[in-house]
Amino acid sequence: MTFVMVTAKYPPHQADKVGKAFTGTKIPETADFVKRINIFVVADFDVKIYTLYEMPDDKLHEGIKSIATRYMGYRDIVGFDYKIEPLLTAQEALPMIGLG
Question: Residue 56 has what DSSP assignment?
């Protein structure tokens, strides 16, 4: 399985708009093979959200497109930014330093 993390942030005064968008029906869900593992919220200078997704390795490209389509649903909220990052587990990363 492959993990993807989305880091999003937005100004605190936009929290009600983000919450309504998240619980509403206008933002598309991700594809059925993309499983949302958890959402973490951090109070920083902005509101920061970490969302962890899991999908089959062979569906990474389609999965990222699906996640990006979902997050584009927030594009009208001023100050909302996000970043999508494919992740490696520590075990998967060890061969990169010659230890795997």
Answer: -
- Sheet containing strand 35-43, edge to edge, reads 35-43, 47-55, 2-10, 81-87
Helix (H, G, I), strand (E, B) or coil at 32: coil
Beta bridge partners of 39: 51
In 10 A of CB 10, how many CB atoms? 20
Q: Scan for tokens 């497109």, then name that residue.
A: 65
As a whole-number percent, the residues of the chain with pLDDT over 90 amount to 92
Q: Could you report how far apart the first and last alpha carbons of the chain are, in Å?
A: 18
Virtual CA dihedral for 54, 56, 58, 64, nearest 10 degrees? -20
pTM of the model: 0.90
